[in-house]
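Summary for the steering committee. One of the milestones for this cycle was to obtain a three-dimensional model of the protein with glutamine bound, which we needed before selecting residues for the alanine scan. The sequence and ligand used are listed below.
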Amino acid sequence: MSELSKLTIAAARDALRKGETSSAEITADCLSAIASADALGAFVHHTPDIARDQAAAADARIKAGDAPDMCGIPLGIKDLFCTKGVPSQAASRILEGFNPEYESTVTSKLFDAGAVMLGKLNMDEFAMGSSNETSVYGNAINPWRRGNDDAALTPGGSSGGSASAVAADLCLAATGTDTGGSIRQPAAFTGTTGLKPTYGRVSRWGIVAFASSLDQAGPMTKDVRDAAIMLGAMAGHDPLDSTSADIAVPDFEAALTGDIRGKTIGIPKEYRMDGMPAEIQKLWDDGTTMLKDAGARIVDITLPHTKYALPAYYVIAPAEASSNLARYDGVRFGHRAKLAAGDGITEMYEKTRAEGFGPEVQRRVMVGTYVLSAGFYDAYYNRARRVRALIKRDFDTVFADGVDAILTPATPSAAFGLGEMADADPIQMYLNDVFTVTVNLAGLPGIAVPTGQDKQGLPLGLQLIGRPWEEAELLNVAYSLEQSAGFVAKPAKWW
Ligand code: GLN
């Protein structure tokens, strides 16, 4: 077999079980694809030795007839996941030199299932960003380009390295995390599939915390079937994460019948934003027609508090971040500033944090500290929490009215150029998350599915939002949309 790094998880699994290829071969093909893709800035720590050992072990398991779905599948792992003995820096200078003594629950589960780690993937620092431009490693680059223009485009963020690596076929799939859209927006920008599970479906243990009540890990894959397979291996109750839910993990792949006849799909009017590009509106309309033609019932719905979601998110997420990031003090993890004679502990904290955190992280820590300060706690943090409850109630109401899934755009635009937002107000960057943050605030599952291309050939995605814990049903609607959209385009190789 050739071009093995281009395989989907499902195709690789089937070929491995039939003995048509080996994990060692697929892994070697991925490693050589990675070796010639430095220009993408996707992989930031390479673990070829671990990969080869894991692949050999997987091949032995497959030969012995013990082959879970993920057995022998080479993956990229976002730098936010702690991986034992392997740098896990959250793309921050402050975690330079941090090689965890333990493995995150998600990577443990994947490795127990036989998956292979190729290396760690670029991301925005502490997962704060929408373009991968806040990373200490430098930018990750989108393999897609605008027509014949060779300007470098963002793969989105914060899981930009994951999206770039999957889109460029450097790995079969990757892990991502999503606090406000960081799986779904990069997936939409790169023509890949990204699923944020229900809050509590996947353990957060061993994943560097950004905003603990919003963070959730999920799969970033080449198609919907792969998202179903990989979620199955990542999900499940974990006593080490008190917010991990003790509910059964269904067979997500078995739910993919593509039959959505009689399902009710809601189209929320509040997502029709002022100034929305015509191409995004058309994509959304086309997606609606596809689901209707597949036999779903389309209903207009209202989610009245949507307009407050972005401000509420940008109060709650920084508040939790400022608290979570207090642990980076120069004592326990990673970087410590060089101190001058006479410096005390305060200078050590100040210098370490000033050197170790980039500007976006510093901004979030300052905003978060401010909204939690005694004088402003009620005005900002408590008000944002109340808004969050109302946003959740909006969704509860439409689901109680019989809506099975909600269709929206995933992003307000196609991938933009790196540096294009450099001089913009930070709020311009935050607007990227306008369609995705509501899902995190309400703890719901959401998936981005590539559905079309813009005039310049860039991929565009739609988002489907499901009922809590009903990822299986959500994946099936996404599968139907994927089949109707028939998105098969790939970026032309330039790297
Ligand atoms: N772009 C959003 C932010 O900067 C979301 C990031 C994320 O989901 N990790 O906070």
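Key point for the committee: Residues 127-130, 158, 178-182, 210, 317, 433 surround glutamine (CB under 6 Å).
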